[in-house]
Amino acid sequence: MINKDINEIDFTNDISSSTGQSALNTSLLSGELSANSSNPFNSTYKDIARTLTINGQNHTLDLGNNYIAFYNQNVNSNFWNLTLKNMTLKANDNAGYSPFYFQNMGTNQQKNSSITFDNVNANLSKTQLFYGEDTPVILAGNTIIKDDLGKTGLGSLGAGYYNGIVCRSLTVTPDANVTMTVNTPDYAMNLWKPTPGAYVEENNNAVWLNSDDGNITIGKNAKFTINSTTQDMRGLASRAAGSTMKVEDGAQVVMNLANGHSTAIFAGNLDVGKNASIDITTMQDNNSEAASLPIAGATVVNSPLNWTNGVLNANGYHYAPISIGSFTFLQPLTHETHAINMEQGSTIRIHRGKANTITPLISFGSGSSNNNKTYTMTVGKGATLDLQDGAYGTVRAYTSYTMGLANSFPHAVEGPLNSQPTSFYPCGLITMFGVNGVNSLTFNSPKYVNLQRTDTTKTGSLIRLEGGTNEVNVNGSSINSIPTSAYDVKQTMLGKDSQNWQISQLTTYNGIGNTGLAFMPAGKKQNSVLSTNAETYTMGMSNGKVLMSPTQSGLNTYQYNNGVIAQGAPTQTGGNYVQSKDNLKSFLDNFNWWTPA
Q: How far apart, in whole angstroms, are the C-alpha atoms of residue 292 and residue 303?
């Protein structure tokens, strides 16, 4: 490795350090780049960085508790582009250093270098696969990573030896098939640290991107699977507010995660390409193991009720299996847009089992007011969104501590006036947090949308948009402004019969913050906190609009817009519209995104 004129090392047999470093020095390093010693100031190997492939030729590299470290002295005009391929890689208990350790290099040296694992079978114990906070990591071929981290104690979100991979950016190459299985024992204790940037995170991450601009790319037709059976293990997490996770056309992401702080995707934006899919099976509940003390002298909030807003820590109901723009402290005041974009034929499927929690399945924003933030989610043509939630958490009664300043709604938490708060979820399956945000959710001719709470003992919201401007659009295709498609809308609420309507287009608006679980009244402008009677407003009293499908429309019954029912018959129908029916009235009286009226 120290000979800069060698660009490929081919194994002819297994290499093991079980008998000491001599095997590494003789077989791989030939002079010791640095095995099992962090020696950044004394490394004598200068200007040796280059593109280097270590081809195991189906043999094993067993580093034991050793590691190979890289330093600034190694880099001059060239950088490291290291590829490990066609090998079994083993390592164990190396004090938090990864088998190939880039963290001793500076930011510039790392960001211009890279490491690739191509057709590698990694079997790791008490260590992570890679640590280089500013280094791009590439996963290729048929790569299997089994990592038992084994570290217990205190730790922060980016603590290196609590993560499977720590890097700048992650790329899974096109057509690759990569499986990560990452587990860890629970921490013995967690304490909240009230200093900016130093809060405790009660879980590990399969992949942690610790760069300000790191992205995640799952290449075309690739498959990336992450499995974990232990509490408090995230999937893919980036600290960069502007980061994007891109699942390219035809690619698949599959995650199977346990309970606790087990968010599957934590990023600034999420793009799902044509015919690509994300499939998450989880028990995520975001319940802390220790008490949260957000304010000095405040009442302790114990798990599993998780009634903290997560402004300064990792607990609370703002974190979901998919969390977008959910950055928790020192948010910049500059305008930021965070988005989920599902392209044609794509799929997002999240199934959560029976979990004692109140968290959403998809969340945008943190527990702050989210000034200057715009949150958008678009479900594109032919796309599938399947959200099924078995959560059954109990909502606490309203207090200024748990919910912020009181607003004009008189009832405990959200829900119908005078209802028992224990029967209602404050979060929707999709939730956009923050009273100063601008929120939009668009269903643009999707193939299938299922928003379902599978626990039969609680009612609950499907959508919650808290911002100053909140809009939901259901758009069908049309010719000459006449809809040619219809959505079959089936609404089933606890204690009521199922109702079915066919609509062509729908737009709804709702109130601000904790009044967001009610329609904005007809004639009312956005950015308003609603009155005490707002929760009684029906769709037919709102400033929204709906166009019924040709099969359910007729004279004076085909369209509602901001308090006005269109009179007469729809034009340019070609005789497709039926005679007057009660479908529009039924929809206006009964449809909502929240809870039984």
A: 9
Residue type, 585: K
- Res 354 pLDDT > 70: yes
Query: How many domains does one find in the chain?
Result: 1
Asked if the model's pLDDT at residue 573 lies above 80, the reply is: no
Q: Would you call 421 helix, strand, or coil by DSSP?
A: helix
Q: What is the DSSP letter of 378?
A: E
Give the model's pLDDT for residue 558: 86
Burial bucket for residue 77 (CB in 10 Å: 0-12, 13-18, 19+): exposed
Least confident of 53-67, 77-91, 287-301, 321-335: 287-301
Q: Helices marked H in 217-350 — which ranges?
A: none
Q: Which residues pair with 207 in a beta bridge?
A: 165, 236
**What is the residue range of 413's domain?**
8-539
Closest CA to 222 of 179, 175, 180: 175
Within-domain flag for 109: yes
For residue 253, tell me if it sits in a domain: yes
As a whole number, mean pLDDT of residues 515-524 equals 86
Which residue in 104, 171, 96 sits closest to 129, CA to CA? 96
Distance between CA atoms of 318 and 242, rounded to whole angstroms?
19
Phi, psi at residue 586, to the nearest 5°?
-60, -45
Nearest to 436 by CA among 392, 412, 469, 401: 469
- Identity at 281, one-letter amino acid code: T
Instruction: For residues 355 and 305, give the distance between their C-alpha atoms in angstroms, rounded to a whole number.
Output: 11
User: How many angstroms separate the CA atoms of 50 and 324, rounded?
Assistant: 37
Whole-structure pTM value: 0.88
Is 454 part of a structural domain of the chain?
yes
State the pLDDT at residue 302: 37
For residue 460 the two structure tokens come to: 């609950």
Q: Tokens standing for 486?
A: 């219809």
Taking the C-alpha atoms of residue 537 and residue 377, their distance in angstroms, rounded to an integer, is: 26
Cβ–Cβ < 8 Å for 204, 157: no
Say which range, 325-339, 372-386, 412-426, 438-452, has the weakest mean pLDDT: 412-426
d(CA 67, CA 37): 8
Residue 451 token pair: 């928003």
Mean pLDDT computed over 307-335: 69
Q: Which residues contact 71 (CB under 8 A, 6 or more apart)?
A: 34, 39, 40, 43, 45, 104, 105
For 129, the token pair is 């696969």
242 is a domain residue: yes
How far apart (Å, rounded) are the C-alpha atoms in residues 17 and 63? 5
Q: Return the closest-CA partner of residue 55 out of 111, 10, 109.
A: 10
Which residue matches tokens 């509940």? 285
How big is the chain by its Cα radius of gyration, in Å? 27
In terms of Cβ atoms closer than 10 Å to its own Cβ (0-12, 13-18, 19+), residue 10 is exposed
CB-based contacts of 405: which residues, under 8 Å, 6+ apart?
A: none
First to last CA, the chain: 70
Please give the Cα distance from 187 to 264 (Å, whole number). 19
pLDDT of 253 reads 99
Q: Which residues contact 134 (CB under 8 A, 6 or more apart)?
A: 107, 110, 111, 168, 210, 211
Closest CA to 391 of 346, 467, 457: 457
